[in-house]
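User: My notes are a mess, but here's the protein and magnesium ion's SMILES. Can you give me a structure?
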Amino acid sequence: MEKIIIFDYDGVIVDSLEVYEKAVISAFNKNGFNQINSRESFLALFDGNFFESAVKIGIPAEKMPAIIKELEPNLLSLQKGLKLFDGIRKVLAVLAKKYNIFIATSNLTNVVKTYLESQNITGFKEIIGADKGKSKVKKIENIKAKYPDSEIFYVGDTKGDMIEGKLAGAKTVAAAWGWHDIGRLKEGKPDYIAKKPSDLLLVVEKPIRNIAVILLYNEDKKILLQHRSEDAERLPGYWAFFGGGINDSETPEKAVKRESLEELDYHLENPKLVMTQNFNGKHHDGTKYVYMEKFNSEKKIILGEGQGLGWYNLEKMKDLKIVDHDQVVLEYIKDKF
Ligand SMILES: [Mg+2]
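Assistant: No problem, the inputs look usable. Here's the predicted complex:
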């Protein structure tokens, strides 16, 4: 699956808090607004979308174009002494070689372009600033529409970034070296937290782990599901298929038979491969090999892993907590019994 990485700019790529704060306060003041008078009141603008937050504290939306216009020369002159965050240059170079990378920012396209050129940073497909739109949700959605089958990451350093990224359907990555601290970022429920720029590579380039799963089904077309324990490392509390990782020396079929013994004490006789599915999990990418076999009711099963099990037909499964990529499997196998 193709991957797209969309970056916020300020606080992720460039260490700009003081400069940006100064420019915003000055642009607000010049237009007659003095609501932003402390670091906290400035940071609070980024608990949500910057422009919506400004409206909420009493800055009318129709004043925004004038304020944005005011920001540009301020930022252009103030940003000259800015520094890139340690390590981000290398990370951007590595990612730009393999993936399409973008910037979606509330800064201005020309300001960002000018600075990145001065630093010899290239490789972005597009820089989408406030002059091209105010909603990061829409910016991310527009990119998504151009690359419909991609896995999309949004890397931001504020709670508002996490909220907007999630609303747009991206996997959100909290950059903990930026404007909001980890506690505040967590309020935006990020999918990943990167403590330093090089962690971004680990998030995007997850290790490969192929898995093999078994869907045992009975006379009534009910499928045996595992109820994962609440403290499971992956998918706690979810209903999932029995099965697990394929070891290096194993074929998928050998793995599914071994897993069935380990987790159910059940000897599979002739599991049939019905589909393979590439997945991008939270911690791993890989291929899932899906096997089916009709359950032999003369045999017993003994649960070896998870908090429980249950037989469910496809209709009943709709009420269970099942991860999206397993839902896709269930949809695919509905006439494979
Ligand atoms: Mg930022």
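The first strand starts at residue 3 and ends at 7.
User: Great, I'll file this with my notes.
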